[in-house]
Amino acid sequence: MSQGVAPPFSAWERTLALRYLRAKRKEGGVALIALLSFLGISIAVAALIIVMSVMNGFRVELLSKMLGFNGDVFVQGPAINGPEREGVISRLRAVPGVTEALPLIEAQGLAMGPNQVAFAIVRGERPADVAAQKLISGNIKSGALKGFGDGDYGGDLVLVGQKLADTIGVKAGDTITLLSPSGGATAFGTAPRRKDYTVGGIFSVGVSDYDAAYIYMPLEQAQLFFGRDQAIDRVEMKVDNADRIDAYKGDIVRAAGPATLVTDWRDSNQAFFNALQVERSVMRLILMIVVIIAALNIISGLVMLVKNKGRDIAILRTMGASQAAVLRVFFMSGAAIGVAATLTGFVIGSLFCIFISQIQAVVEKVTGVSVFSADVYHLSRIPAVIDWSEVLVIVIFSLIVSFIMTLPPAWSAARLDPVEALRNE
Fold it and tell me: Tell me: the pLDDT tens digits for 256-302?
């Protein structure tokens, strides 16, 4: 074999690199370290994909449900309670990008059932608007929307969150008593207003904070019960893309006109989502460090391999193999571990995220313990949304780290003096 005849990464180099990975019994330490490197990188890559996907799922689920429940933009002020209210709402609906604009009342009260009394947030909306909100109308677990809004002043049917209904002990068709602190004036002060309603339906949106507190009531009935006359609290709007709220806000402000205050979801929820983003970034950094630590084992394995193969390296050099060829052989030996481990971690992490609901169900069935409490995490299931661009970054990062870790021992092997190596043998 003459130096420079074979091209880089030729068949003989690849064959020799793979042969070195098949450790003999006397080289069992090398095989063990290679196995530990493989397992460490695989687990670290899979964990990184899973954690990032779950954190991304948290943000997507919470954002979609919070905004689906509360709206993206809010308009308040005297203008929405004047004679031009319907005109203002019509202008807001006509803004490009706005999908909904609905008037509502939101007030606090107490809900009484057979079991106990619980704090409740009563939201008054027009029946047609409630029916159009798929997050509510599409998640009625018992009862129905039929009859909601029928009768004088909107009737007496209400919709109750599932956890709130369970807490006070009511079901669809039962009677629930509501108490409002804003009652009528008496000689002894303001007396709370109390009224019985019928539970028309029980909804569950999957966010425990909402399911445990909210009651939906027809807008006219809410105006009557809370003594608002014809007034409303605000107009809520939804837009095509809540992350691009600034693209719509200027047009919304102009459509709302003077004597209005326009706010958006970021004013009340930005701190929460910023905290999620910071936590996500920190977890990514920590797990990337874990990938680096796992890849460090490649150095240990290759150092031992170079030591064991010193005689082979000397023979190759005397036969005409170049330093670059030797470097490539040992580089491919270490890189093969990193590539195989990264691909294995990618497959495990991706499959885990795809079937995470089934895995959660099996674990809970086997252990009999809820591994994802809605009371703690605000969601009824573990969310996982795979961002394939982020997964690609993770895979590339793991490969680059693995390749870098192979270079020092491979470079050491390439610089080995054949005469000294044979003399030591």
Answer: 888 889 988 888 777 777 777 788 888 888 888 988 888 888 888 77
Contact between 161 and 202 (Cβ < 8 Å): yes
Pick from 175, 153, 159, 130: nearest CA to 221: 153
The number of beta carbons lying within 10 Å of the beta carbon of residue 368 is 7
Nearest partner of 353 among 386, 380, 381, judged by Cα: 386
DSSP sequence for 49-90: HHHHHHHHHHHHHHHHHHHHHH-SEEEESGGGGSTTHHHHHH
* Backbone region of residue 5 per phi and psi (left: phi > 0; alpha: psi in -120 to 50; beta: other values): alpha
Residue position matching structure tokens 């599932």: 162
Instruction: Encode 284-323: b = buried (16+ Cβ within 10 Å), e = exposed.
Output: beebbebbbebbebbbbbbbbbbebbbebbbebbeeebee
Residue found by looking up tokens 């490969």 in the block? 399
Looking at residue 136, its amino acid is I
What's the rounded Cα separation, in Å, for the pair 392 and 45? 11
User: What residue has token string 């449900």?
Assistant: 65
CA–CA separation, 325 and 372 (whole Å) = 53
